[in-house]
Amino acid sequence: MAAQATGGSTAVGTARVVTCLADVSISPEMRFTTGIAEFDNVLGGGLVRGSVVLIGGEPGIGKSTLLLQAAGLLGKRGVSVLYVCGEESPQQVRSRADRVGASDGISLLPEVDVSSVEATALAERPQVVIVDSIQALFDPGLDGASGSVGQVRATAARLVRMAKTHEITLIVVGHVTKDGTIAGPRVLEHMVDTVLYFEGDSDHTFRIVRAVKNRFGSVSEIGIFEMGECGLAEVPQPSGVLLAQRVGGVAGSAVMAAMEGSRPLLVEVQALVTPSYGQVPRRLAVGIDTSRVLQVLAILERRADVALGTHDVYVSVAGGVRVTEPAVDLPLALALASAHRERELPHDRLAFGEIGLTGEVRAVPHASARLREASRMGFTCAMGPSKCEAGSTGIEYCGVGSIRSALEDVLG
Ligand code: TYD
Ligand code: MG
Predict the structure, then answer these.
(1) pTM to 2 decimals?
(2) Is residue 38 part of a domain?
(3) Do residues 355 and 326 both lie within one domain?
């Protein structure tokens, strides 16, 4: 019986032989390590052969720099790399490669037509193909300009198919734009094995590479880098770098023991509170969600008698880092109250803890990791939730039950 054009086929297909799941053999995955420990770790222990990695981030954040460095190191280790530069000239790539000291074993392909990229990769058979960027490529058989959703999807799907069929490791760069005019890497996330995003702002040198999806590793991993004269340098001890510019004796500064994935990180939360001359007081936050700041302001007013309704409030996490976890509440509240009362907080003390709407300080995970990092960085006292598995970390721990008692404790 012929299939209906609209209703689909009702014909019975051919039966296939099924496999017992337990009989499926798995070979241990083979990985290429770059030697950049922060990058290898975030990948879950290096690049898996035949896997597809998407690296997203805003233009100018350092995606090409990191990949060129990684490509150079892979080349030095005898791994063949094909670098497809779709948006920069070979001269630009060469000059960046010289700057970061990478050129060994990298073949360059200035090309934007995805069919030529595929044909070249199949002829050259490199072990790793880097496509910089997916928005620059286009499929001549399709309508739409390069960078449109259709083109980005189609070109990526074609390259992913090639990588999987021929066991070529593929790294794809995707730009994220704030205004969203270009199809972002989000449309590709489901197609790839690993998704890494670059964070940080181009005004600061600090960069965090975060795994948001990884079929071959944990998503709680991050890599921390600093952009310098010779490319991206690893920062194995980021707390020291982030606190290096902290000055003592100033009101409105609180140190937080934060967690970035599975790693503790000490950051400085700064607040400035000034009388407001406008009709509506200003609330500006950098590195913390404004909604979080508004909630902490409301809690301070209702639960601790710190009323900032007639004041402008500016909040910032120093160093261009973003803190999204609720544990920022307590250090944020301390910084705000300290700024308001113009009284500095003890210099050798830090804080962490979520604050509930009734003003209670709530437990947060990884207390002992936070405290160990605090102790390592020379802090002698930490303030946090009273219900907390602090363990023995060689630091004096001051558990507080509410925001009111926390403020009494440090500001009197
Ligand atoms: P780039 O890797 O080109 O960013 P993306 O590929 O994500 O768009 O990085 C560009 C920025 O990094 C640019 O502003 C210059 C800066 N940079 C350095 O500061 N030092 C360096 O060694 C390099 C190569 C770049
Ligand atoms: Mg680039």
Answers:
(1) 0.83
(2) yes
(3) yes
